[in-house]
Structure formats: structure tokens, C-alpha cells
Amino acid sequence: MSETNQFDAAFFRRWLATAAAAVDREAGHLTELDSAIGDADHGANLKRGFTAVTEVLEKEPPATPGAVLVLAGRQLISTVGGASGPLYGTLLRRTGKALGEAESVTRQDLAAALATGVAAVGQLGGAQVGDKTMLDALVPAAEALGDSFAAARDAAEGGALATVPLRARKGRASYLGERSVGHQDPGATSSALLIAALAEVAAA
Ligand code: ADP
Ligand code: MG
Description:
mainly alpha
């Protein structure tokens, strides 16, 4: 377990590269979840987006954590057509903006910035915890990140699993009404992957 509590631009690039690998590995599963309560494109959407993120971060690596997240968010917005592109793009862009121009940040800085990014997702999509969206994983994760990376990972996974019995109130799945009950939300599942990638990189 790493003792450091200073995370630089290279750490954030490793996070997003690890997240991209997880999205690649789990794309089929994400699409399967989206085929049950959506239009079966969540895996492909995120795969396209995160491949583009990895490419741009390799080609023009930004010097600060904030700039890494802002660039990644912009890339997601411009490459992902579905609802999740603008939402994840906003998450990363607003989290990055909140980190400012520091060369390195602490876990506590990131927890506060992530809370800002998550709030921006809520504003953009009009969803709240319990609506069976990515926020069900992201909100508890941002809160738990104040305690540890592992706590954030566990909170995100718990939040994603907790979407199963919920009825969707936002996004495409909400068109299904009661029939959305009994399925895990794809976006909450991908959010848990992103937070797990963060915890993995922090523990390396
Ligand atoms: P689309 O719904 O356009 O096909 P995706 O399949 O890529 O887009 O993403 C679907 C996911 O996006 C959902 O599982 C949900 O987690 C998330 N989502 C959809 N609408 C909203 C919203 N208004 N607020 C937050 N998250 C949302
Ligand atoms: Mg979809």
C-alpha cells in the first residue's frame, strides 16, 4: 500500500489508462446490462470514449491533475454520443476544474473535487440518488473517498448493486417503468469500474 498522499498528473493518467482497460474488459457486460433496460450501447459508448481518452492523454499529456481530467472529460463529451458521454464528460471536466492548477493533490483534495463533479452530473441530468443511475455509485463513492480509496471503491460497488431493486426514474431505463426493477444499472456499474480503477492505481 502506497504511503504517499500526493497524486500528480502521471497518477491521474495511470488512473484513466487503468479505467480504459477495465472498460475494454467489461464492455460486453456493460452492454448486456444496457440491453436489459436500455439500448445495448453502454459498453460500446464507453469503450469508444475511453480509447479516445487514452490516445489524447498519450499524445499530449497535461502537466497537472486538473488538466488531465479536463482534457479527458472534453474528449468523452466529443466522442460519446449516448447520455453517458456528456454525463461522464461533465464529471471529469468539473472534477478537474475543481482541482485547479496544483501540480499534485491529496486524496482529500480529490474527494472534495469529485463531490463537485458529481453534483454537476446531478444538475445536468436532474437525477438524485435512488433514481437508478450512475449517481447511485458516484455519490457514496465521493463521500467515502474522504476516508480511503478502498472505502470509495466499496461504496461505489455497493451503490451499483443497490440499483438492482430500484425502478429507474431517469434516462432510457425510465421508459420501462416497473420493468426496470430487477436489473443492475449499466451506468452505476461503469462508475464502480472507474472508482475501482482509482483504488487499484492508488494501491499500486
Ligand atoms: P444512452 O442511455 O443514451 O444509451 P448509455 O447507454 O451510454 O446512454 O448510458 C446509460 C446510463 O447513463 C444509465 O445506465 C445511467 O446510469 C446513466 N444515465 C442516463 N440518464 C441519466 C441522468 N439523467 N442522470 C444520471 N445518469 C444518467
Ligand atoms: Mg444505452
